[in-house]
Amino acid sequence: MSEILVECRALRRSFGSVQALRGVDLKLEPGKIVGLLGPNGSGKTTLIKILNGLLQPSSGEVRIDGRAPGVDTKELVSYLPDREYFPDWMRVSDALDFFQDFYADFDRARAEEMCRALELEQGRSIKTLSKGMREKLQLLLVMSRQARLYLLDEPIAGVDPAARDYILHTILTNYNPQGTVLISTHLISDVEQVLDEAVFLREGEVVLHEAVDSIRERTGQSVDSLFREMFRTGGREGGERNDR
User: Fold this and answer.
1) How far is CA 34 from CA 136, 172, 223, in A?
2) pLDDT tens digit string along 50-69?
3) Where do the structural domains in the chain lie, given as residue ranges?
4) CATH hierarchy code of domain 6-231
5) Residue 111 in contact with residue 140, Cβ under 8 Å?
6) 164-222, pLDDT tens digit by residue?
7) Which residues, in sequence order, are CB contacts of 192 under 8 Å at separation 6+?
8) Rg of the chain on CA atoms, in Å
């Protein structure tokens, strides 16, 4: 097992003439909850999709536990996209069956326990669930895997504050302690309480990667306050739905 779980070296990704990632160098150790923080268009979703093997870099290298993203890393990575993906015809139990069939590390008992805590009946049709409940379902499935790397793209966007608290509690108490959680978000004040490290991404470049406690001690500010100060002139903070 490598002491570095995720390593990106001179990572670049372009979409035509648009450079979404510009030479990203990044190392993440196991056992951390890391915030991937940046304004809209900073490249957060692109980076997460490359780590998940959904996109290929234009140049540079990526390694997850020493392996390039792809078929060999599927067993290591648990991915929560920023969009719903279960079809309406599915019931909650069908979604659990799907994960159980597809992922050998899926803990069905843990998933069912979280369903009971949410009062989410397994016979319920997904199309009858509220947006917040559908997002909680997707999250509990992702967090019920014993993965090494959890990639969560905007897990608390579009849900009410009470739901955010539950989602953050679910992340904090259910991830594999030998793994790493990478949370992409622009809602920094909401997630700061659970973060060990913060990565600031601006225009496809890492401009800061530091332990959260170190940031507070060094600057006398919260991560959210420092982010607002550093990105104030950018004027592009907002949702991640159109982020490259």
Assistant:
1) 20, 12, 12
2) 999 999 999 999 999 999 99
3) 6-231
4) 3.40.50.300
5) yes
6) 888 888 888 888 888 999 999 888 988 999 999 999 999 999 999 999 999 999 999 99
7) 35, 212, 222, 223, 224
8) 18
